[in-house]
Amino acid sequence: KLTSLALQPAVTPELVQGRVHLKCTYSRPSSKLLLRYLVVWSRLSTPGKKEQIRRDATLQSFSYVEMDGVNLRLGDTVFCTVTAFTTDAPEQQSLPEESKGFYAGIKFLPESLQIAEDGKEHVLTVLSTVPIACPGNDDSCKITLQLSTEDLGKNSQLPGPPNVALSACQVDLLRAPCSERSCAAAALTVTAVTDFAQDGNRVSRIRAEPVGQRDLLWRAYTPKDVKVTVRDLPTGNCYSFTDPHIITFDGWRYDNYKIGTFLLCRSVSRAFEVHVRQWDCGGHRSATACNCGVAAR
Fold this sequence. Notes:
Number of strands: 23
Distance between the termini: 78 Å
Order of helices and strands: EEEEEEEEEEEEEEEEHEEEEEEE
Shape: rod-shaped
CATH class of the largest domain: Mainly Beta
Number of helices: 1
CATH architecture of the largest domain: Sandwich
Radius of gyration: 31 Å
Number of domains: 3
């Protein structure tokens, strides 16, 4: 009779007396049998391998385990497996049912980005799947994350100029009611740096580190990086050289021997323009001007 029970265990996060716990809940069958439940907690230690961390025998339709930063840490994927059996005949037991894996920690959505050097902003959401405890009565119900970027480039030994720009260097994850696997969230934008260089597609990563934390659970935790692939786009070039010969973006060529300050180029879609100042450099022999100054906005 017990083999066909649909226990459907699920793991959810919860604060218990100000400390982060995970709760395994399961359906109590509507039978008159007095059932006891064996709940086995495990975590993914290496890909494909689970490590048992706790066994709990209970009459309740739930079981708790604390995230203490030692046996269970942020960054772990946690499972609970439930078996039901009758108290008067323990040999009658149900088939063990396992929950879906619950990832406890900081998540980025999306988990990776593919963007191009086109100036577009891409929204990156950072969230905590576990509730944030308040050590004091002040505004400490938050986790502050320090964000940084690193260009993995073609030669990771020589870091180049940044390929991505973030809208913020720090974000605060403010405590909120847990819903849809999120207990706190913040959003920022990621933009590819237009570097005017044909350097191929580049890979960067965005790193987040909790700062100013007294809580061992968060202090010893480094969230997983976000991989960002930046697609290289061709860039236009224009020139002004020697006595000035000018080549425009579309390859048109002409000379400008005049003295004065000139508008070399201006964008019609953004605040970008370049001025050039030309001065006499030919003397009495010839009417020749040369670039002596440039200003770019």
